[in-house]
Design goal:
With about 325 residues, the protein is α+β, with helices and mostly antiparallel strands. It folds into 2 domains: about 1-110, no CATH class; about 125-325, Serine Protease, Human Cytomegalovirus Protease, Chain A. It has helices at about 20-25, 30-35, 70-80, 90-110, 175-180, 220-230, 285-290, 305-325; strands spanning about 1-5, 10, 40, 55, 60, 65-70, 125-130, 145-150, 165, 180-185, 190-195, 200-205, 210-215, 235-250, 255-270, 280-285. A hairpin with a 5-residue loop joins strand 5 (about 60) and strand 6. Helix 3 (about 70-80) runs antiparallel to helix 4 (about 90-110). The longest helix has 23 residues, at about 305-325. The two termini are about 40 Å apart.
Length: about 325
């Protein structure tokens, strides 16, 4: 089992469809023929069958002749090596060789390839979302909670690298019942804002997404964090997760949509930079929030204006997705 030696030809012309290219290859040809199209070969498989090869990245003509490497195909292959579209089952020891093969084609086309992630780095992903709205309400005694949405359902993400993402309702339902989830400041484990086990973090799914309420510690760094949220300097939320189940669909030329069906949640976090179009992170009075709206899981809802805005944005983006899928 090993990566295949590189021959340097690459083009960015034409559309890329890996399965269609593989389908144009002849059956029952010799090893040299298949090695012209793929980047990895299973040395224990039958070298005269396409099943013994992986990571097709060369354009295949209608007559079955492999041609130049596709830069889009090479980029897609590196994305799979880095965990995209469910990752790959080739041996870990072969990942670097396959990466070098695909990256060399990209460099040959004067393109800088993305780095190869180390094993395990891609298992935990992070997504951040701009705020729906942000406001601070101080209680009579100054106590405050941090209340927001770490994720929103049925909203198309920004471009995450030749693919977009949608979180389906129920994706967090199992993990929030079983996992000991932390709330972190900027995803930094040195600054723990709350934890489900200690009941300083409450999580619940509702019609909008994954809602959280954090009771922050009475420490100087936490008080400073609340100040930045009150000022509006930080008004976004994020979550760290590992995919349990997902589904990939092609929505446009060389563009895929990944639907997250079930995830394992590690932490939620107020953050600075966005990747999704909506969420909220609100520093609010604990007394006000619990008395007026209730904690997550007890019928709490986002402000009506914010919810309406989020719904409108979701509908606009889903209409765009629907139009793209019909082209």
């Amino acid at each position: 089992m090993a990566a295949i030696a590189i021959h340097h030809t690459a083009t960015d012309e034409g559309t890329w469809d890996g399965p269609a290219n593989e389908g144009r290859l002849d059956s029952g040809r010799d090893e040299a023929y298949y090695r012209r199209a793929f980047a990895w070969q299973d040395s224990e498989g039958d070298p005269t069958t396409k099943a013994a090869y992986r990571f097709i990245h060369h354009m295949v003509a209608a007559d079955g002749t492999p041609g130049a490497a596709s830069t889009r195909g090479c980029s897609a292959g590196i994305g799979v090596l880095n965990g995209g579209r469910g990752g790959t089952t080739i041996p870990d020891a072969d990942r670097r060789g396959v990466y070098n093969h695909l990256a060399a084609h990209l460099r040959d086309a004067d393109m800088e390839p993305p780095d190869l992630r180390e094993i395990g780095d891609w298992e935990i992903e992070q997504r951040a979302i701009p705020a729906i709205e942000f406001r601070v309400v101080d209680g009579a005694q100054g106590a405050a909670t941090i209340d927001g949405y770490a994720a929103v359902f049925n909203v198309l993400s920004e471009d995450l690298g030749n693919f977009h993402e949608i979180i389906l309702p129920g994706a967090f339902s199992k993990t929030i019942q079983e996992a000991d989830v932390r709330a972190l400041w900027q995803h930094d484990p040195n600054f723990v804002l709350g934890r489900t086990r200690s009941k300083t973090l409450a999580l619940a799914e509702d019609g909008v997404g994954l809602r959280y309420t954090i009771i922050p510690p009475d420490t100087q760094w936490a008080r400073d964090a609340l100040v930045t949220m009150r000022r509006g300097d930080v008004n976004q939320s994020s979550f760290a997760f590992r995919v349990i189940r997902d589904e990939w669909t092609k929505t446009a030329e060389d563009v895929f949509t990944r639907s997250l069906i079930e995830v394992q949640l590690f932490d939620v976090s107020p953050v600075t930079y966005p990747a999704y179009p909506q969420t909220s992170a609100q520093a609010r009075s604990r007394v006000f929030e619990l008395s007026q709206q209730g904690a997550p899981g007890q019928g709490a809802h986002p402000p009506a204006e914010a919810e309406a805005e989020a719904r409108a944005r979701r509908e606009r983006r889903l209409r765009l997705l629907d139009l793209a899928s019909k082209e």
